[in-house]
Each structure stands twice: as structure tokens, then as C-alpha cells.
Specification:
three-stranded antiparallel β-sheet; alpha+beta
Length: 104
Amino acid sequence: GRIWTGLIKKHSGLINFVHGNPWIKPLLLGLPQAILPVSKDTGLMVFDASGREVLHYSMHDGSRIRDISVAVPHGDRVYLPSFKKDSRGLYSLKISEILEISIR
């Protein structure tokens, strides 16, 4: 067995800065979301059954699918739902193709 995880967004430098400086959170929360930098990158991470070893990690630029929150393996495919209004709704990839380019 493997553990499949969706990575909704890539952390930005701003997120890292805010985490280290929590006093700025109330100021940022008052700003319109449209002016805050938000990454379109989304990704997928696959762990071994123990959850300790990463078998695969990949980030995508968000051009075809955005905000991967869940990765559901079934048969020889993994299904990636996307809940954005302008998306197809459900994408699938062959597991063998994903794991072929695994990090070791």
C-alpha cells in the first residue's frame, strides 16, 4: 500500500514570512484577497505504507488542474478531483506513469 496526498498550494515566501511573524496576520486579513500573491502551483506526493518514505513528489503549474486536495488510487489509475468552476471536475493519470518518474 501507498499513501497518496494532494498538495493544494505551494507555499509562497509571504506565507513563510507570516508564519515567522504572526503579528502581521490581522493586517493581511484586512486586505482584499485579489492583491495577495497566491501560487497556482499544485501537486501530488506519494508515501510508502509507513508514511515515512516519499516515493514520488511532483508539482504542476496549475494550467490544467488546480488545487489538488485529494488523490484517490483505484485500479491502475489515480483520480484527482478539482472543484474550481472552470475545471473538468475529475482528472485521472496512470499510476505506472506517475511512479515511473519517482524520486528515489
